[in-house]
Design a protein that fits this description.
The complex is a heterodimer of chains A (175) and B (86). Chain A is α+β, with helices and mostly antiparallel strands and 175 residues long. Chain A is built from 4 helices and 8 strands. In chain A, strands 1, 2, 3, 4, 5, 6, 7 and 8 form an 8-stranded mixed sheet that branches. In chain A, helix 2 runs antiparallel to helix 3. Chain A starts with a strand and ends in a 14-residue tail after the last helix. Chain B has a single domain, classed as Ubiquitin-like (UB roll) (Roll), CATH 3.10.20. Chain B has 2 helices and 5 strands; from the N terminus they run E-E-H-H-E-E-E. A 5-stranded mixed sheet of chain B has the order 2-1-5-3-4. In chain B, strand 3 and strand 4 form a beta hairpin. Classes of the chains: A alpha+beta (175), B alpha+beta (86). Chains A and B meet through strand 4, helix 2, helix 3, strand 7 and helix 4 of A and loops of B.
């Protein structure tokens, strides 16, 4: 399929490239483009972060990106180009960890496709983040279980924990 | 059958090789393999919490394999702790 580009990029070989994403989703038919860029930030949960290591199960990650693309296509139901790329390896503060870009005829579909894709990448793709802190300590981030029983349980707990009117994440932790 | 389980994320700390090999019965399900792995880790990597294994999913290169599924014929699997991409 030429209107979906998925990639895992080894940071030792190349940086993620927003210009390449923009070029891929650009099309004469499309007046709306939305792009999400995720970067490594220097603080998390009150600790000073010096870098992040990303570990991926690459064959399944790429297959998951493809499935997410198919889901976005069904959701949008019209012409769309979608670009999903994630970094692997050791990233420093400010480096790009993930790019999702969507091109569609109008802005609403572009926003929706981009949001759907980045949320699915974060919650479903086999990717793990290890934060390194200024004091020399490291920790794997708490994540979303892909195990069916735990996934349902975590979603129920998050729904119970959500305060009325508070915009909640789909599960009980922050990321 | 011999099963090789590739390790990722926090579970890489379970074995420096990056994988664990186990002998599983021919008719084993993923749930059965999870029990075998938990026993193996209790003995060989007691610093890995049983709760982390419970919250992890098994997968082939192509898909998540839920608890009722049989082991893949080639014996190649991965165990995926809770994910945290992006």
């Amino acid at each position: 399929m030429t209107d979906l580009h998925t990639a895992v990029i080894d940071i030792c070989e190349a940086q993620l490239d927003p210009a390449a994403a923009l070029a891929f989703v650009s099309d004469r038919r499309f007046g709306g483009i939305d792009m999400f860029i995720g970067k490594v930030r220097e603080h998390n949960l009150g600790r000073v972060v010096t870098g992040i290591s990303y570990d991926l199960f690459e064959p399944l990650a790429l297959r998951t990106f493809q499935e997410i693309g198919e889901r976005a296509r069904k959701e949008i139901g019209g012409p769309m180009k979608l670009y999903i790329a994630h970094a692997k390896g050791e990233l420093r503060i400010g480096e790009i960890a993930v790019i999702v870009a969507a091109g569609t005829p109008h802005r609403d579909e572009a926003f929706r496709a981009c949001r759907l894709a980045i949320e699915a990448v974060k919650h479903e793709a086999p990717i793990w983040k290890q934060e390194h802190y200024i004091d020399g300590d490291s920790a794997w981030s708490e994540g979303c279980s892909l195990c069916e029983d735990h996934r349902q349980q975590e979603q129920r707990e998050a729904e119970r924990a959500a305060a009325p009117g508070k915009k909640t994440h789909a599960h009980g932790h922050e990321h | 059958m011999k099963v090789r389980i590739a390790l990722f994320g926090a579970l890489r700390d379970a074995d420096p090789h990056g994988f664990i090999e186990l002998d599983a019965p021919e008719a084993c399900t993923i749930a059965g393999l999870r029990d075998l792995l938990r026993e193996h880790l209790r003995e060989h990597a007691p610093h890995i919490s049983a709760g982390l294994v419970q919250r992890s999913a098994f997968a082939s290169n192509d898909e998540i394999l839920h608890n009722h599924r049989a082991l893949p014929e080639d014996g190649q699997l991965a165990i995926l702790p809770p994910v945290s991409g992006g």
